């Protein structure tokens, strides 16, 4: 069928029909309650173990489940686990799954699914890798019970198993969890509150989730990513609408119900509509950042990375990516998100003022002589593209030869994992936005991990002193001493700059007032939402 490009005036219904989307016409209309949402990006990666992409995390929490979960204030609570015990020496953890957990194919969830899932996730995630360093054994006791034995006390076991930062420790079926940790899982059979409707999925256009009627929600109220995941609609449809103006018009007309991460320049327009709510859902702001590739010059030299801190004015980045309204963003010099429990700015005084001459000097000292550097980015997520444009302009001001290569977000995500030379399929820089759930804590912050084994997150910066301090922080049981170590660790990060800070912002969501029960938490959740 030949598709005709439709403008905003034609409405979402016209877009859906033109795309040949599978809609409610194939289902009894009277029996359906459908929530139509516009996600912040298209879903292209189905395996949350292999990456920390936010859209994949949202999908994963709908279709799969976790052993523990973080509540609205990021306290850890049991989820798939019904009960657990910790030995007095803190070296043995025994967990029992709660009854009634089933895969979407009807088979029972067992310990044989849990163990390989956690082990696979832990090979890729910063928190998981750290937990494995402390773990002596992970074994099944019976179908419902499993045990972890530690080499030494590790005070973050439950916090790690419920992580909403980095990659998510969701539980896969045993046969799926057997997939190599560096090969993506493409099956979509989970045990979570929604079923992924594979037949209705139209990549680049529409993604459909159906209520899992067999899901045994916990009895307590929904609380962030914890509590009862009761599904109150029959179906959730994600409508992919790359143009923010089109999305704003559809939301204003009531053709869609919810918009995940509305574009900054559209917020004043939709706020005028008395039938629309615009609100953040997390207690803390998120972070804009620029990641450099430390494997290749000039950013293998920390002086070149430090040059960016002197060159960048965070206000420029946030105005471009979040809008002019300063209610929703602020300047922040913490690698762990200002306002969070560990959001220190200690040691950052020198880089709080833009100094272009200093930036040029540091680039020269790093050995940079005008070589072309490649910035990979996307306009599919407008805010990320805006960050890249501001960074490119400022880098050119200090004499850096930057080539910005724009592609779809899925291609950028794939490319950022490659260690090839920048001019042979690799890269030198990319911009992104990081969630506070990932960046708020030295244990969860994947970009602050500076191990020298090449197994840390994309960019692979190496600094033994920073890692020494991070490990001291993790092992220290006394909170006052832990904060002293945190300040030393943060000051070291300012020196070696694992990533450039581009300011904090409040991630916003918009929904029609006939939508109720949107849960506040670290990641957008679709359970507990009803629509009248």
Task: Please give a quick description of this structure.
It contains 16 helices and 21 strands. With 532 residues, the chain is of the alpha+beta class.
Descriptive account of the structure:
This protein has helices spanning 11-18, 54-63, 111-124, 126-134, 157-161, 174-177, 244-253, 267-271, 302-311, 314-322, 356-365, 382-397, 409-415, 436-439, 464-475, 479-496; strands spanning 34-38, 68-70, 76-78, 81-86, 92-97, 135-140, 145-150, 194-196, 206-211, 235-239, 258-260, 276-280, 286-292, 329-330, 372-377, 401-406, 429-434, 499-505, 508-512, 515-516, 530-531. It is an alpha+beta fold. Among the domains are: 63-177, Dipeptide-binding Protein, Domain 1 (Dipeptide-binding Protein, domain 1, Alpha-Beta Complex); 286-505, Dipeptide-binding Protein, Domain 3 (Dipeptide-binding Protein, domain 3), CATH 3.10.105. The protein has a seven-stranded mixed beta sheet. A six-stranded mixed beta sheet has the order 14-18-13-17-15-16, sandwiched between helices. Helix 3 (111-124) crosses helix 4 (126-134), helix 9 (302-311) runs antiparallel to helix 11 (356-365) and helix 10 (314-322) packs antiparallel against helix 12. It is globular. The two termini are 35 Å apart. Mean pLDDT is 92; it is low at 1-27.
